[in-house]
Design a protein that fits this description.
With 579 residues, the protein is an alpha/beta fold. The protein folds into two domains: 8-322, ABC transporter type 1, transmembrane domain (ABC transporter transmembrane region fold); 341-578, 3-Layer(aba) Sandwich (Rossmann fold), CATH 3.40.50. Helix content is 64%, strand content 11%. It has 18 helices and twelve strands. The strands form three sheets. Strands 6-9-10-3-11-12 form a six-stranded mixed sheet, with helices on both faces. A four-stranded antiparallel sheet has the order 2-1-4-5, with helices on one face. Keywords: ATP-binding, Membrane, Nucleotide-binding, Transmembrane, Transmembrane helix. The chain crosses the membrane at residues 29-52, 64-89, 142-160, 166-182, 255-274. It is a multi-pass membrane protein. Residues 30-310 form the ABC transmembrane type-1 domain.
Length: 579
């Protein structure tokens, strides 16, 4: 699945809501309309005054210098008013975009994790980066051009009719033709641009997945296949981009034909007006210059339609996330955290293929359960279901006798935490990074958490807890980063810890440190451990052996060895590998 794309009505409602929440937005909008109207009216004086030059020359007059000064003054006044109008309008638009961006980030941060997982992080990443940037670019580039064009066109029509009512023929010819051309364009272009943006999101997803799974791709020599999938997604971007641009080429051809018809009509009207003595040669010269100037705003609109449609497609994708935010889950009234978990007849499928089937087991308070099995057996899926990151297709996942999906954020944090080998170190001070787990924690608590997981490297940091870590500061190696993640869990103090190969770095020189840190987290609380090393499973209270999404064996280490089944074979192979 992907996040939805908002309909036109949903986009209008959201834009209206954003504008209504801006202080003085309505007053600023009408002020910009007034200023831009005056600017467009001042711009009409330029061709009329230039036409007056023709009459002055023909009459042998000497007012050309005065007319030149008036032309310059009209141009300066028009430019100044247009700039002021654009500024006022842009302040409203940019503030609305900023608020919309904040709303999207807030919505994204509160989306259910399973929804983000199912939709793909690449889709959300594309909307929160590419689409927001595209929308901002559209506002800054297209808004001035379109606004200017609209006001100039209105002022042009009024000026032409004011010169001679017969010139009404020109806008009467142009308006229906432009309307039909724009209607045809807008009928097909938005969908094509939406497809282009969606294909760009798909490409981002493919690239992101390949980068995140680079080691796996190398291990299974699937680099060529991943590159092929990225190439296919990129080619779809190209195809959809060509389709959108072909629509623009057709529209531009229609614009050229309409402009030719306008010029012909204008010349005919001008000839008749001069012959009948209704207008002077200078006045019809000014009128024809005004008609010729229609091309500029119309082409401005055409050239920005690409940007406008791309921006609208991005806006619809952003509103698709924002307009229907997930309701905040209220407290379910779950009992006090005890560390008890139940999976009952749980089934879950990815894209129609079963990932796990008939999963049933119980975790008693303080009990350690280990999941073992080959890669792809379904262990990580079970961990995700237990942590509430996935919703089972059938069956029940209960934490303290309460469905995990009904727990509020505060109830969930108090009860369980998932630790994986994929660790993120936030940019900022170490204190800020750790306080994510427990806001307001004292320095004593932070140091105690680091000491509990054996983070001896903390003593070597130049500024202690004030040391900047992450991409903009001290780079932590994988073992240190994992210890930091485990220290966060220590601060959270959940009743249940789900460890999805959280000590996968134990094969490195930091094996002992990570094992010590894992024991500090699991001792005294319930834990479900996906064991990539069988010695991690050997001391578990219950071992579940998985294969092809099912639990095929269960028992203690000694019981499973006595069965002589799959676990015994795995243990034997692993033991021989250590020798």
């Amino acid at each position: 699945m992907r996040f939805p794309t908002a309909t036109g009505a949903e986009v209008r409602r959201e834009v209206s809501r954003q504008l209504s929440e801006l202080p003085q937005a309505r007053a600023r909008f009408w002020a910009s309309v007034l200023v831009l109207s005056l600017g467009a009216a001042a711009s009409m004086a330029v061709p009329l005054l230039l036409g007056r030059v023709v009459d002055v020359v023909l009459e042998g007059g000497s007012d050309i210098l005065v007319i030149g000064l008036l032309v310059s003054l009209a141009a300066v006044v028009s430019a100044s008013l247009n700039a002021a109008g654009f500024y006022i309008l842009s302040t409203v638009a940019e503030r609305a975009i900023a608020n919309l961006r904040e709303d999207m980030v807030d919505t994204a941060l509160h989306l259910p994790t399973h929804q983000v997982e199912e939709a793909g992080s690449g889709d959300l990443l594309s909307r929160s980066t590419d689409d927001v940037a595209e929308l901002s670019s559209s506002i800054s580039e297209a808004l001035p051009a379109v606004t200017s064009a609209v006001f100039v066109l209105v002022a042009t029509a009024i000026t032409l009719v004011g010169l001679d009512p017969y010139y009404l023929v020109v806008p009467l010819i142009a308006a229906p033709a432009y309307y039909l051309s724009f209607r045809q364009y807008l009928k097909s272009a938005p969908e094509r641009y939406a497809k282009e943006r969606a294909s760009m999101a798909e490409r981002a997803t493919r690239v992101l997945e390949s980068i995140q799974g680079l080691e796996t791709l190398h291990a299974f020599r699937r680099e060529a296949k991943a590159q092929e999938r990225i190439g296919e997604a990129s080619y779809r971007v190209v195809e959809n981009g060509y389709a959108a641009r072909r629509t623009m080429m057709v529209t531009q051809s229609q614009m050229a034909a309409i402009e030719a018809a306008m010029l012909i009509a204008g010349l005919v009207m001008s000839y008749l007006a001069v012959r009948n003595g209704q207008l002077t040669i200078g006045e019809v010269t000014g009128a024809m210059m005004i008609i010729i100037r229609i091309k500029r705003p119309m082409m401005g609109i055409i050239h920005t339609l690409d940007t406008v449609n791309s921006g609208y497609a991005s806006l619809a994708r952003i509103v698709g996330v924002v307009h229907n935010p997930p309701p905040r889950v209220p407290d379910s009234g779950a009992p006090q955290p005890s560390g008890e978990a139940d999976l009952r007849d749980v089934n879950f499928a990815y894209d129609g293929g079963w990932a796990v089937r008939d999963i049933t087991f119980h975790v008693a308070p303080g009990e350690k359960v280990a999941l073992v099995g080959a890669s792809g057996a379904g262990k990580s899926t079970v961990a995700a279901l237990l942590a509430g990151l996935r919703v089972p297709d059938s069956g029940h996942v209960l934490i303290d006798a309460t469905p995990v999906t009904t727990l509020s954020d505060s109830e969930r944090v108090a009860r369980l935490a998932l630790v994986s080998q994929d660790v993120h170190v936030f940019s900022g001070t170490l204190r800020e990074d750790m306080s994510v787990a427990k806001p307001g924690a004292s320095d004593t608590e932070l140091r105690a958490a680091l000491d509990a997981v054996g983070a001896d490297w903390f003593a070597d940091l130049p500024d202690g807890l004030d040391t900047v870590v992450g991409s903009r500061g001290e780079r932590l190696d994988p073992v240190q980063a994992q210890q930091l993640a485990l220290a966060r869990i220590f601060l959270m103090d959940p009743a249940i810890v789900v460890m999805d190969e959280a000590t996968a770095e134990a094969g490195s020189a930091g094996a002992g440190e990570l094992e010590h840190a894992a024991r500090a987290i699991t001792d005294g609380r319930s834990s479900v451990v996906i064991a990539h090393r069988l010695d991690q499973a050997a001391d578990a209270d219950l071992i579940l052996v998985m294969d092809a999404g099912r639990i095929v064996e269960r028992g203690t280490h000694e019981e499973l060895l006595g069965l002589g089944g799959r676990y015994a074979k795995l243990w034997g192979a692993w033991s021989r590998g250590r020798v």
